[in-house]
Structures
1.
Amino acid sequence: MAEGMALVKSSTDLQPLCYEHHVLMRPVQILLKGDMYPAPTLAYTCSEPGCLIHYNSPTGYFIIPMPDVTCPHHSLPMYLAEVNPQNRSFRLWRCPQCDAIHTNEESLSGL
Ligand SMILES: [Zn+2]
Ligand SMILES: [Zn+2]
């Protein structure tokens, strides 16, 4: 049996790039909410600080939001609605059911 001949490529051999930052993504174990992925799943994450873009083989590219971003009225996970190119860590989240928004810079909005 020749070694390395008929090996199925494991998904850890992939070297996907972040489609936004064009840098090599690194493999991580993630826990996705929802029925489809009840167990820790291998995915790739961008190495840019604050980048939420992930990739894995059956799903393709996807965004993992911060776990605490939920609508205070509906307890629904909010989606990323706005970013600021001048401030890469800025995120604005919006509820899919109402107009509630959440930013990660709440302290600046209370002037
Ligand atoms: Zn990225
Ligand atoms: Zn809401």
2.
Amino acid sequence: MALLFGATSLIRAGSPEASAGHLTVLQRLETAHLQATHEARLRFARERQSLPDLGLFEDFRAVMHVHAEDAEHTKGTRQQVLEAARKTGVRIVMFTDHGGPRPETWRGIRDGVLFLAGEENGGAGLLRFPDFGSDGKPRSEDDVRFLSHIEERYDASADGFVGMEICNRHTLAKLDPSLQEWLLSAAKNPDEWRKRLEDFKVYPDEMFAASADYHAEIFAKWDRELDKRPFTGIGANDAHQNPIFQGTTFDPYEVSFRNLCTHIQARALTEPEVRQALRDGHVYVSHDWLCDPTGFAFGAVNNLGVFPMGDAVAMTGTTRIAGFTPLRAKLKLIFFIKAIVSRLQSLRSLIVRCGRRSVPLRL
Ligand SMILES: [Zn+2]
Ligand SMILES: [Zn+2]
């Protein structure tokens, strides 16, 4: 089961093309749309309310698939990653060195931020977060592995993986290169370029996010795996701080970290707890630049107890599914992938009675 929390639809509802529905990347990049999106963000921030602490887990904002000082084409440093994490409230950074983890990559807590050292193997479509032995060396057993760059491997076997990227910044840029092409073409005309730079100064998050979109094939792959077993979906920043046009960096870590977050629900800010939360699916993916979703929760309650997202719940007695959001939102509840029941509400909480079923429900 999945519960999707969308604020983008609210932004579209406020834009002139709402009736036409979907905006293209180039439409979103028009100054008027950048401004409308910015105003919607300010409104969301004003209307946002804190959620009650449900006491099960703490909600840690994480960024996964981050590169720094690991390859020629990576332009950012670990220190810059730390500074961006501090500015954006990121508590967990999961590095994925090309061919790593490098021995010097950070692990443990620095300035209140927990770092994990992992590897990206691009050819194999693999993100790997090894456990480390008492000698400080990565061990090959007990890796937490995710399928990466799904657009290159929709039919890849998921054996040995605990989950997959359901959103990756570079995947988005490959599937729709309009933003990149638009910057390249503007760079040839000094007047045009000056205008773009002005927009970027005022609306860096809005411009960065303009190329994000829903790609059905990626979610279809996730659905196929979820049909067989639990399979954790993660957001992949794939941050390198390297799209640099005429001296301006268009994906500073700070903007990337606000744009896409994987919220990890764990009992404590430690590497073993984070690894367990990722295995258990105590995770949700969000675009925090739109509005801070911290505290978002959904789960099930029945006479056996309370079951948070990621867990399986035995459907005895009357089971209720409950969800809480910090903002009025459109909530879509999807049961058993194909037999879809969707329910749209403009409320900050949702409660659905499920009744009895013979099979446990996985949240
Ligand atoms: Zn790279
Ligand atoms: Zn990467």
